[in-house]
Amino acid sequence: xxxxxxxxxxxxxxxxxxxxxxxxxxxxxxxxxxxxxxxxxxxxxxxxxxxxxxxxxxxxxxxxxxxxxxxxxxxxxxxxxxxxxxxxxxxxxxxxxxxxxxxxxxxxxxxxxxxxxxxxxxxxxxxxxxxxxxxxxxxxxxxxxxxxxxxxxxxxxxxxxxxxxxxxxxxxxxxxxxx
Length: 179
Hints:
Elements: H1 2-18, E1 33-34, H2 35-43, H3 51-60, E2 66-68, E3 74-77, E4 97-103, H4 107-113, E5 115-116, E6 123-125, H5 129-137, E7 142-148, H6 149-154, E8 160-161, E9 167-169, E10 171-172, E11 177-178
Antiparallel strand pairs: 1-3, 2-3, 4-7, 5-10, 6-9, 7-11, 8-9
């Protein structure tokens, strides 16, 4: 059962963050999808999903990747989109330092060019080293970068805080990164 929930959660991430066309789903401009349409289209692709299971996934996801609207008729990914959506996040003042987990293989490019959003809409940063370590560990031995977010903000870089607590920005130039 738990393995199936993990598979469904990953599939939802694919659909709601990157490739809604995989199941013929249309996200609105703010990344929202109709819950009943999502369930129906997922079930047409030989994957069993009902509203109780979807609620369970949203409520128990350790990274709070998904969110419902108030009446639970719409769902979206909290952040991490590679498809163009407007999350309507407010610009916020970040803490002094934020963190980013990566691996050694990317360090040469990061030291030259900084952190780039690549195929996503934003660079993702965390407010603690523990989360950054988990993120970096997905690809091997993690390297934790310390981002001087206060200095960036003072230099007019915009920061946003997603609903699930991930800090977002467009780019982190190399001069704001420490090891």
